[in-house]
Amino acid sequence: MAANQPAEATVEWWRDAAIYQVYVRSFADGDGDGTGDLAGVRSRLPYLVELGVDALWFTPWYLSPLADGGYDVADYRTIDPAFGTLAEAEKLIAEARELGIRTIVDIVPNHVSDQHVWFKAALAAGPGSPERELFHFRKGRGADGELPPNNWVSEFGGVPWTRLDDGDWYLHLFATGQPDLNWAHPAVRQEHEDVLRFWFDRGVTGVRIDSAVLPAKDPGLPDFTPGVDAHPFVDRDELHDIYRSWRAIADEYGGIFVGEVWLPDAERFARYLRPDELHTAFNLSFMSCPWDADLLRTAIDDTLAEHAPVGAPATWVLCNHDVTRTVTRYGREDTGFDFAAKAFGTPTDLELGTRRARAAALLSLALPGAVYVYQGEELGLPEAEIPRDRIEDPMHFRSGGTDPGRDGCRVPLPWTADAPYAGFGGDTEPWLPQPESWPKYAADLQAGDPRSMLSLYRQALRLRRTEPGFAVVRGSGDAGVRDAAGAQLTWLPSGPGVLSFTRTDGLICVVNLAGPPTELPGHTSVLLTSGPLDDEGRLPQDTAAWLRS
Known about the structure:
Elements: H1 6-9, E1 18-22, H2 24-27, H3 38-43, H4 45-51, E2 55-58, E3 62-63, E4 75-79, H5 86-98, E5 102-107, H6 117-125, E6 137-139, E7 161-163, E8 168-171, H7 186-200, E9 206-209, H8 238-253, E10 256-259, H9 266-271, E11 280-281, H10 284-288, H11 293-307, E12 315-317, H12 326-329, H13 350-366, E13 370-374, H14 394-398, H15 443-447, H16 453-466, E14 473-474, E15 481-482, E16 490-491, E17 498-502, E18 507-512, E19 525-529, E20 543-548
Parallel strand pairs: 1-2, 1-13, 2-5, 5-9, 9-10, 10-11, 12-13
Antiparallel strand pairs: 3-4, 6-8, 7-8, 14-15, 16-17, 17-18, 18-20, 19-20
Helix pairs in contact: 7-8, 13-16
Pfam families: Alpha-amylase
Family: Belongs to the glycosyl hydrolase 13 family.
Protein name: Alpha-glucosidase
């Protein structure tokens, strides 16, 4: 397939794409065993076509013991049997592409599963073996090596080192079952380049890179004092050479990369988006920003400014498989997101949160660049509070039980209101329990309701494709011509608590986040609103509108 793909890359579809995130385990269950699978996704392709998305990003579907929701990969060339087979994945990729939907897969370069053949060989080979050089094995400190090799802190909290019976310790920045790879070893680099080719050869169009700033480590693995020492494992310069080699492979296939890049430094962030590295990166500052006009405007301006020097498109996302769902987050007193602030029993006004989430959907979909929609956001699903005895997320356990974890945004989707388990797939209870309220969010109910969240997303995504004000591709040829002006945004004068801006060809977006009902800017027609205007045609609080001037 490689020979057929580079030509379509000239369209640069990814610059303004609407990409839907599929968490396979919770999307749809095709065989009725309580776990989502590829057959379930294939059965729902017509739904995704009608929704109007350009691509699907699949979180890891590979063989995995699921110590961390699939981000502990045992074999990149094998689909986990719970989800299906490699042949089914190839069929899904091909069927989606025939329907105009591209596929993006997830690669986790920082670590593998402790069930990966490499790690099992390293355990068997013993201390000082070549097999252990593929990972970070070290002797401990203290009189008998009983202390960890350094003072690093795990991304999940706690000590990122585990000691084996033979005395060696191994590094895992995440869960114990996710040993970190040694990216200074040439075999690690070669293996990942081979994996990229494996999936590009099977028709995927893109790759999302998990924890993209973490794989390279200071070879000395020194102690780290924040604010004093250079960081030993975040954003190291060696990463850029790795991603340049990956980009060369992607260019052969017309493929694209999107990186998970959490960095506060705009200049350091932009380095990953240079023309010979990654195509895009997630905009995590916008996602975690509170529902506040001034803060959101700053986040938008900063995002566009940090992308401009390298000519990369911005990305916009409200929620993902790690983050509290938008409806819930916006219905709380603290409307921002911070992993450290998550707690059980946080009061939430779901009616308020839903109103704000509808407005936020129109805001994010109107901004220049690509947008990601996490499954279930188009249904307005709230965060579910999982009973403690059903929680599976390692973040909960590593916090000592204080963090509710990420399972609340991963609850299986409701498809059919009057079917068992809201039509997720069969008579078997899903792997995570659904709240009693789940049937009222079912896709079949919302599809027939013009006021539903699903109808709002469908209308918005249709307009985003058809209205000239959103388009950044011009020309009648197959390749098209990119119009740089199409990626611009111009702020309009507005009152306190209101965001108002124009795109190209007369498109206007107005969002009233906190003010009294506001007059709409001059326009010839109203394209779409997230809620009704008041009796005088003004935009109420927590409401957004798209206008044509």
